Amino acid sequence: MDSRIQSYLRVAASQQRDTEQIGPFLATFNRYNANPFLNYAIPDNDATPSLSDVNALITAYLGRKRKPRLEYVAKLAPAVEEALTSGGFTVEGRLPLMICTPGLEQLLPVPLGIELIVAVSDADMLATVTVQNEVYGDSTQVPKTLKVYKLA
């Protein structure tokens, strides 16, 4: 399952961002937004990067005015952390993977005082983006108007 999740991360990032293979890393870059959660590298499974690979990764991110950062399943590339820390990286977090086996999904009650709505109007979409930017520490200015386009 871990390998499938990391593979999905690679595919999803490649569809939405510019990418560059730098040594054993797939570097992803959002050309419009410097938010670190939208710009990160993913190592190949079983990667054993050299310090030169790590330095090339840092150079690529700084050259695009992006924070050098990685997100990956550590047990799929156990040699990566040592190479990264040798290159000046620090561990930002160790987050657990959440999986749900098909058929075991559970509907949870909505907490009292909370209303779940689908954002469909321009005003709702603008409010949604504004909240997301605030929550994730994105200082990008949200345009005063936001147009929503749908396929007919």
What does this entry look like structurally?
This protein is of the alpha+beta class and 152 residues long. It is built from 4 helices and 3 strands. It has helices spanning 2-16, 51-63, 80-86, 122-135; strands at 18-22, 25-29, 41-43. The longest helix has 15 residues, at 2-16. It is globular.
Give helix and strand order, one letter per element, not per position: HEEEHHH
Distance between the termini: 37 Å
Kindly state the percentage of residues in helix: 25-40%
Q: Find the count of extended strands (DSSP E, 2+ residues).
A: 3
Largest sheet: 3 strands, antiparallel
Q: What is the CA-based Rg, rounded?
A: 19 Å
Structural class: alpha+beta
Strand order of the largest sheet: 1-2-3
Average pLDDT taken over every residue: 87
Strand content: 5-15%
**Ranges with pLDDT <50 over ≥5 residues?**
none
Number of helical stretches of at least 4 residues: 4
Shape: globular
Give me the secondary-structure topology.
Layout: H1 2-16, E1 18-22, E2 25-29, E3 41-43, H2 51-63, H3 80-86, H4 122-135
Antiparallel strand pairs: 1-2, 2-3
Summarize this entry quickly.
This protein has helices at residues 2-16, 51-63, 80-86, 122-135, and strands at 18-22, 25-29, 41-43.
